[in-house]
Design goal:
Strand content: 25-35%
Number of domains: 1
Number of strands: 12
CATH topology: Deoxyribonuclease I, Chain A
CATH architecture: 4-Layer Sandwich
Shape: globular
Largest sheet: 6 strands, mixed
Number of helices: 6
Length: about 260
């Protein structure tokens, strides 16, 4: 693991710096027991959330594209704060989008978020299959002037293996001949991704980041990036920064010139 984001010193005009993090609604658990003792924080506003979001924004400002999972688009539990908009503003991103996966009215607005230095094109929100509703994928197209567009799918998959199998099948069927990456909290191992028949058929390869969960004692690698065969991933790492119950993952991707 590395304590630093992708360095600006090695960044050039043809590359895209990517960050992905499940932000746990800004709660930043640091012990398993917090899932029980601090469960009320998923329902009501609590102290420390803005400070955590500020730290996430400080990290995000080093990147060109940021994929957020388990954010809230503004509800009772966040004191009506749209967390995606807040991080985007603090980190200086001109372009953002929040896709609500699970709408619990005034109580919670579970969402995926995308922050970008360049305009977001072809934005789509897909509902993922599963017995329990509330899982989705945010699809955007990033077009940096002078380079081939890159399709990005931001995901947060189910805990159930059977549901994930169907969701990964659905994701694989969304991929066509364009350059694309899938990134986010997959809630599964690298081996599960590499053995999935639809992903293999589509030629998607998974990048091996290493353990990301739980952040205070990482044992499970469940945050991933998958890329189509023509996408050149130059660097990838897990960042040793405890900003939620997941560690962030970072990558640098070479864009193709037009």
């Amino acid at each position: 693991m590395t304590p630093m984001p992708v360095s600006a010193d090695i960044h050039d005009d043809s590359s895209l710096r990517l960050l992905s993090l499940n932000i746990q609604v800004g709660l930043n658990s640091s012990r398993y027991r917090h899932y029980v003792t601090q469960a009320w924080r998923h329902l009501l506003p609590s102290r420390g959330v803005r400070e955590t979001l500020d730290a996430i924004a400080d990290l995000a400002r080093h990147y060109d594209l940021v994929a957020l999972q388990e954010a809230d688009a503004g509800s009772l539990r966040t004191a009506q704060l749209d967390q995606v908009a807040y991080v985007a503003a603090r980190a200086g991103f001109a372009h953002r989008y929040a896709a609500i996966n699970r709408n619990l009215g005034p109580f919670a607005q579970h969402c995926l978020g995308c922050l970008s230095r360049w305009p977001l094109q072809q934005v789509r929100h897909h509902i993922l299959p599963g017995r329990l509703p509330g899982r989705g994928v945010l699809e955007v197209e990033i077009t940096k002037p002078g380079f081939v567009p890159l399709r990005v799918f931001i995901v947060h998959l189910a805990l159930s293996r059977s549901a994930r199998f169907r969701q990964l099948e659905f994701l694989g069927e969304l991929i066509d001949d364009t350059d694309a990456i899938l990134v986010g909290d997959f809630n599964c191992t690298l081996q599960e991704l590499e053995s999935h028949p639809t992903l293999r058929q589509r030629g998607l390869r998974a990048i091996d980041f290493g353990a990301t969960f739980p952040s205070w004692q990482p044992r499970r690698a469940i945050d991933h990036l998958l890329a189509t065969s023509d996408v050149d991933v130059l660097r990838s790492s897990v960042l040793d920064l405890r900003l939620s119950d997941h560690l962030p993952i970072s990558a640098e991707i070479r864009l193709k010139p037009l």
